[in-house]
Structures are given as C-alpha cells and as structure tokens.
Amino acid sequence: MDENSSLGTWSVVNGSSISGNRASDSGGVLRMDKNSSLGTWSVVNGSSISGNRASDSGGVLLMDKNSSLGTWSVVNGSSISGNRASDSGGVLLMDKNSSLGTWSVVNGSSISGNRASDSGGVLLMDENSSLGTWSVVNGSSISGNNASYYGGVLYMDKNSSLGTWSVVNGSSISGNRASDYGGVLYMDENSSLGTWSVVNGSSISGNNASYYGGVLRMDKNSSLGTWVVANGSSISGNNASYYGGVLYMDKNSSLGTWSVVNGSSISGNRASDSGGVLLMDENSSLGTWSVVNGSSISGNRASDSGGVLRMDKNSSLGTWSVANGSSISGNNASYYGGVLRMDENSSLGTWSVVNGSSISGNNASDSGGVLLMDENSSLGTWSVVNGSSISGNNASYYGGVLRMDKNSNLGTWSVVNGSSISGNRASYSGGVLYMDKNSSLGTWSVVNGSSISGNNASYYGGVLRMDKNSSLGTWSVVNGSSISGNNASYYGGVLYMDKNSSLGTWSVVNGSSISGNNASYYGGVLLMDENSSLGTWSVVNGSSISGNRASDSGGVLRMDKNSSLGTWVVANGSSISGNNASYDA
User: Fold this and answer.
1) Are 386 and 419 spatial neighbours (Cβ–Cβ below 8 Å)?
2) Which InterPro entries does the UniProt entry name for this protein (predicted)?
3) What count of other Cβ atoms lies within 10 Å of the Cβ of residue 561?
4) Bridge-based pairing state of the strands 6-13 and 564-571
C-alpha cells in the first residue's frame, strides 16, 4: 500500500490461508507505506497466516510511519504462526507514530511459533507508536514465539504505548522466549502499558529470558499502571537466568498496582540470581501489591536473594497486603530473604497479613527466612491481624522470620486478634527476629489473644536477638496474649540483649502471659548482656510469668555486668511463679 492509500477490509475466512510469502525487504505479506490506512483485517473460522518471511522486518506486516490499522481480529480457531523476520517483528513491525486500534485473538485462536532474529518475536512497536487493546480471549493463546534479543512476544520502543492487554477466560501466554531480556514483553525507556489483565482461569507460564525478566522487563522510566491476575488465574513456571523470574523493573520505572485476586496464584517462578518473581532496581516504585481472597505466592526461588522480591537501593513499595485467607509460602532464597530482600535505603510502607492469611514455610539459606532488611532500609508497619499467622519459616543463620541489618528501622510490628508467630527457626540467632547493630524497632505489640510461640534459635534469642546498640521502644503483650514455648540453645529463651542494646518498656497486661520458654544456659526468658538496659517491665492485671527455665542461671532473667532494669512491676493479681534455674536463680 503506497503513501496515503487506504483499504477498508481484508477478510481471510472459513479455512482460508495466507502462507509462504516472502519479501526481500520488509512486510512478508503486506507493507503499509506512510500515512496509509487499513480499516479491518480479519482472519476467521479456522483460517491462517503462516510461514511468511521478511528479510528485514515485519514477517507478515510492516506499518510505516503514521500508518494506521483499525482492527486485526483472529477468530474462531484461526491462527498466525511460523512467520519470521530477519530483523525485528516476527509478525508485525509498527514504525514511528503508527497506530493499531485493536488486536483480538478470540475463541480458541492462536499466535504461535513466530520469530524475530532481533527483537519482538511477534510485534515490535517503534517510538511513539500505539496499540489500543490487545485481547486474548476464550481459550486463545500466544505461545512459543521467540526473539534473539528483546521481547519474545512484544518489544515496545521508547515512548510507545499499549492501552490494555487482556488475557481472558482460560486463555494463555506461554513458552515464549527472549535470548536477552523480556521473555514475553520488553518495555523500553518511557514506554507505557495501562492495564495487563489475566482473568478467569487464564495463565502466563513457562516463559524465559536468558538475562532479565522471564515475563517482563521494564526499562528506565517505563510505567505499567495495573497488573491484575484474577479469578483462578496464574503466573507460573517463568524463568530468568539472572534477575526477575517474572518481572524486572529498571531504574525509575513504576508499577501502580499488582493484584492477585480470588484464588489466583504466582508460583514456581525462578531467577538464577535475585528476585524469583520480581526485582526492583534503584529508585523504581510499586504502589500496591495485593494478594487477596484465597490467592497465593508460593514455591518461587532465587539462587541468590529475594525468593519472591528483591528491592534494590532506594526502591519503594507502598503497601503489600495478604488478605482473606491468602498466603505467601514455600519460597526460597539461597542467600538472603526467603520472600523479600530490601537493599540499602529501600522502603516498604505497610505489609499487612489479614483475616486468616499466612506467611509460612519460607526459607533463606543464610539470613532472613521471610525478610532481610539491609542497612538503612525501612518498614513502616508490619501487621498480622484477625487469625493470621507467620509460621514455620527458617534461616540457616540469623532471623528465622526477619533480619534487620545495621541502621535499619521497623516502625511497628503488630500481632492482633488471635494471630500468631510460631514455629520459626534460626540455626544461629533470633528464631523470629535478629536486630543488627544500631537497628531500631519502635513497637512490637501482641494483642487480643495473639501469641508468639514455639520459635527456636540454636544459639541466642529464641524469639529475638538484639545486637549491640540496637533498640526496641515498646514490647506489649496485651489482653490474653502470650509468649510461650520458645527456645534458645544457649542464651535468652525469648530475648537476648547484647551489649549496649536497649528496651524501653516490656508490658504484660490484662491476663497475658510469658510461659514455658527455655534457655539451655542463661536467661529462660531474657538475658541482658553488659551495659544493656530495660526501662520498665510490667506484669499487670492478672498476668503471669511462669514455668520458664534456664539450665544454668536466671530462670526468667539474667543481668550481666553493668546492665540495668529501671522498674519491674508485678501488680493487680499478677504473678511470677514456677520458673527454674539449675544453678543460680
């Protein structure tokens, strides 16, 4: 089609085909020159476009600058397959400022086995080009496409835009590959995708990138508004040989909301370095990540750090919510952060585990079975609420649940309304939490029938080890809550406070208890090392400290040289009873 020409409709119908065509330059089937337009191209009822080739770009179609295609529909068991471009765009290359309104793949139709020897195994969108909607609907698929460099399915160049990509009603994007970045999609600088929805039993699975982003790589300053995985849909078995088994976000890129909803899952993804699901590079941002209504993130793995997520320097995540019977479980990192590693100066605003939800069975082969917070990182609030739990997580060194590195800060950790932290383990110190030098925790509250129980450290601090100069403002155990059955094989069955560490207030209030904790040497509940300080320890209103044990000294408390306890109050029908030390009380 020459400049300024137009074609209203091109229909390939009822088992018809366009196949085996070749262009010595671009557009194996069709080349649309500048300012040309095609209204509708329909491939319908078992028809196909296959085995076409361009020696340059656009194995099927090349759209030149400012050209437009209104609708491209592949419908009712039709297919676009086995097309090839020796450069970019195995099926379609959209040149600068070109536009495609809607590309629909519907009712058991497919785009498969297409290839670009450079980028965009199916589609390359050049600078400032736009695609309104790409829909894959009703058991349709995009599969087995390949790019030798970027974007196994789609490469979006600088400033290009895709409004909506929807994968709906049992449809799939699977087995696509980029030999460099973005097994499915590569978004270049300043490109934008409004919404990517995977809905109603649909899936993104088995895609691969040899470097970053098994599904998606977002380059600098690119943006994705919303990624929705809903109603029994899944993202699974994707792989990146370096970073981001599903998604790699480069510097200053942004993702507004990632929702995993209504029995949906992100599972079995892998990065051979860091970020089994997601790696956020410096200064990137994710607004909200929600895992809701029986949904899950499970069985993901990073061979270095961040079994689910690694946040690089200065990156930020606003809110991570796990709600209504949802779970994060069985994820693994070979070094740090079985679920999450937060690098220096990164920040997470709120992490909420709510309404019967859980974080369980995650593992780090070094430290932070769930979370490692690196130097100067911050977490505002971590809440475990309404029968929710953090359980059975493991670190081979420090922090069965959480390791806080030097100068990191956690504002509030609340365990509320019948919630629990239980059965976590560190093979060295801090069965639940290890606080490194100069780290700080503002408030740790265990409230309304909640519990911290059955946690273990093979050396120090069955629940918590506070390293030198670390500080905990307030630890409150309130309204029938308990700390029980925790164990340290050396010091501090519940808490070990290292030299110069400080705890402002420890309150056990309103029928709450600290019981049945054990240290094999000193401090069945608490060991305070040299120069450590506890301001006030109050046991009030029918509360108790009972049945704790140290095999050497201090069945409840051992205070080392120059340590200080300001006030210990036992009031209003409260008690300290039945504690035991095999040597000194």
Assistant:
1) yes
2) WDR48
3) 9
4) unpaired
Structure tokens given for 190: 């300043």
Q: How many CB atoms lie within 10 A of CB 432?
A: 30
Q: How far apart are CA 157 and CA 125, in angstroms?
A: 6
Q: What is the pTM of this model?
A: 0.98
d(CA 284, CA 220): 9
Contact 207, 242 (CB under 8 A): no
Token look-up 């097309």 returns 83
* Whole-angstrom distance, CA of residue 252 vs CA of residue 469: 34
Dist CA 221 CA 459 (whole Å)? 46
pLDDT tens digit sequence for 348-373: 999 999 999 999 999 999 999 999 99
Task: Please choose, from the candidates 287, 238, 232, the residue with its C-alpha nearest in 3D space to the C-alpha of residue 261.
Answer: 232
Cβ 86 vs Cβ 119: under 8 Å: no
- Decide if 486 contacts 431 (C-beta within 8 A): yes
CB crowding 394-429: b at 16 or more within 10 Å, else e: bbbbbbbbbbbbbbbbbbbbbbbbbbbbbbbbbbbb
Tell me the C-alpha distance between 13 and 49, whole Å: 11
Write out the two tokens for 387. 């029968």
Going by C-alpha positions, the residue among 274, 425, 278 that lies closest to residue 348 is 278
Distance, in Å, from the CA atom of 26 to the CA atom of 1, rounded to the nearest integer, reads: 13
Strand extents, DSSP E, 169-284: 172-174, 177-178, 185-187, 192-199, 203-205, 208-209, 216-218, 223-230, 234-236, 239-240, 247-249, 254-261, 265-267, 270-271, 278-280
Burial 263-285 (b: 16+ CB within 10 A, else e): bbbbbbbbbbbbbbbbbbbbbbb
For the chain, the average pLDDT equals 98
Q: What is the pLDDT of residue 584?
A: 60
Binned at pLDDT 50, 70 and 90, residue 583 comes out as confident
Contact 254, 262 (CB under 8 A): no
Closest CA to 91 of 58, 139, 125: 58
Specify the pLDDT at position 585: 55
Number of CB atoms found within 10 A of residue 156's CB: 32
Task: Find where tokens 């020159």 sit.
Answer: 33
For 209-254, the pLDDT digits (tens) are 999 999 999 999 999 999 999 999 999 999 999 999 999 999 999 9
**Nearest partner of 153 among 204, 226, 189, judged by Cα:** 204
For the segment 295-314, the average pLDDT, to the nearest whole number, is 98
Domain limits, the chain? 428-437+453-584
Closest of 232, 297, 235, 298 to residue 262, by C-alpha: 232
User: What letter represents residue 48's amino acid?
Assistant: S
CB contact at 8 A, 548 and 555: yes
